[in-house]
Amino acid sequence: MKNITLLGATGSIGLQTLDVIEAHPDQFRLFAISFGENVEKAIPIIKRFKPEWIVVKNNAVKNKLTSVLNGNYHIISGLEALEEISVHPKTDVLVNAVMGSVGLEATLAAIEHRKQIAIANKETLVTAGHLVMEKADKYNVNLLPIDSEHSAIFQALNGESSNQIKKIILTASGGSFRDKSRDELQNVTVRDALNHPNWSMGSKITIDSATMMNKGLEVIEAHWLFQVPYSKIEVIQHQESIIHSMVEYIDHSVIAQLGTPDMRVPIQYALTYPERINLPKSESLDLVSISKLHFKEMDFNRFPCLKFAFDAGEIGGTMPTVMNAANEVAVDLFLKGKIKFLEIEQIIESLMNNHQVVANPDLQTIQSVDTETRIKAAGFKREF
Ligand SMILES: NC(=O)C1=CN([C@@H]2O[C@H](COP(=O)(O)OP(=O)(O)OC[C@H]3O[C@@H](n4cnc5c(N)ncnc54)[C@H](OP(=O)(O)O)[C@@H]3O)[C@@H](O)[C@H]2O)C=CC1
Ligand SMILES: CC(=O)[C@@H](O)[C@H](O)COP(=O)(O)O
Ligand SMILES: [Mn+2]
């Protein structure tokens, strides 16, 4: 029986992780959860799974939760509390499914405590991939990817050494606006942007898919997880999201992982690896009824955020931190209706262009660059 600590339980990955846990009561027990502010969504989860520990974003949420919850729960709040449950002696597996780089410190702490880590939270690897991987190496911890593309690559690699890889091929659906020209993007709405063609996900990642920043973040995530140079990472558009990604080897053999777009598959694999077990209520892939799969070259002029990410990754140092923090704030401003869709990329580009890179930054430098960038991005209207 594995005790699971689930960060981001009220989110899209969080809820699907709970489905997997519930499907296998003989294998998994929910030991602890965290969530941000959504008490209404958290209550039924807590009543159903009865986790011993609950971490929330701040004291106000803690007070609200305590006032409506009966039972013997440890309720704590804040970033340090996230670390506390992540390294708790009873935590066997940490599932990091929070949104944003807020997951970084908890991940680092869990690595130091040699926890098994299933990671969905790509922003952590983008903002400080070198620190996470250095620590994972030092403590001999395997980070098991949940992100569908990275789970696909992980499966396609099957332990092969990186000098046999010719390239990693990440597939991109194209997001909600894949058939629109840049001109047609001028006045798109939040509602339209949130309408992803293939996946039902949290709002931040859905906007990232529409700007193609999601694929940019995934390029950096792949670089760190699989220790592959950016020159060996390619992105192609594949509108059906059936091939989740591929690896081409030096002998030109290409190994791909396919399946219906269902995140419970990579979530469960990260929890049961190296075993595979039955996944109730998921569907077999029916290639005959799909009949055709489509592929297209990516266009950096149409999707500049993808280019920003390759540039940020190659430049390294604090540049990916700036790109990620600027993006997190810009997407939030867009979701709140304060900026237009195309202003997301303007904010990111402007902050990257004006950043003085610090090479090989330590955690403190990353945290201060992250904070400064967020402040600048939030003042977009005034500053630019
Ligand atoms: N959704 C998907 O299919 C996929 C997601 N991912 C990645 O997984 C991560 C989670 O994505 P997704 O589940 O879609 O996101 P959601 O927005 O659906 O959920 C995010 C979760 O994080 C919590 N949270 C947000 N901000 C904070 C904070 N400041 N402090 C503590 N908790 C916080 C939320 O709590 P609350 O809402 O209660 O405030 C919620 O539980 C992201 O990094 C995403 O890129 C990767 C592949 C696929
Ligand atoms: C499910 C998942 O892993 C998402 O990251 C998904 O890949 C988003 O799709 P696109 O970014 O390709 O639109
Ligand atoms: Mn993905």
UniProtKB/TrEMBL annotation:
1-deoxy-D-xylulose 5-phosphate binds at residues 122, 148-149, 173, 196, 209, 214-215, 218. InterPro entries: DXP_reductoisomerase (IPR003821), DXP_reductoisomerase_C (IPR013644), DXP_reductoisomerase_N (IPR013512), DXPR_C (IPR026877), DXPR_C_sf (IPR036169), NAD(P)-bd_dom_sf (IPR036291). This is 1-deoxy-D-xylulose 5-phosphate reductoisomerase. The lineage of its organism: Bacteria, Bacillati, Bacillota, Bacilli, Bacillales. Mn(2+) binds at residues 147, 149, 218. The gene is dxr. GO terms for biological process: isopentenyl diphosphate biosynthetic process, methylerythritol 4-phosphate pathway involved in terpenoid biosynthetic process. Pathway: Isoprenoid biosynthesis; isopentenyl diphosphate biosynthesis via DXP pathway; isopentenyl diphosphate from 1-deoxy-D-xylulose 5-phosphate: step 1/6. It comes from the Bacteria. Its cofactor is Mg(2+); Mn(2+). It is an enzyme of class 1 (oxidoreductase). Residues 4-129 form the 1-deoxy-D-xylulose 5-phosphate reductoisomerase N-terminal domain. One of its GO terms (molecular function) is 1-deoxy-D-xylulose-5-phosphate reductoisomerase activity. Catalyzes the NADPH-dependent rearrangement and reduction of 1-deoxy-D-xylulose-5-phosphate (DXP) to 2-C-methyl-D-erythritol 4-phosphate (MEP). Belongs to the DXR family. NADPH binds at residues 10-13, 36, 38, 121, 123, 202. HAMAP family: DXP_reductoisom. Residues 143-226 form the 1-deoxy-D-xylulose 5-phosphate reductoisomerase C-terminal domain. The keyword ATP-binding does not apply. Residues 258-374 form the DXP reductoisomerase C-terminal domain. Its EC number is 1.1.1.267. Gene3D superfamilies: 1.10.1740.10, NAD(P)-binding Rossmann-like Domain.
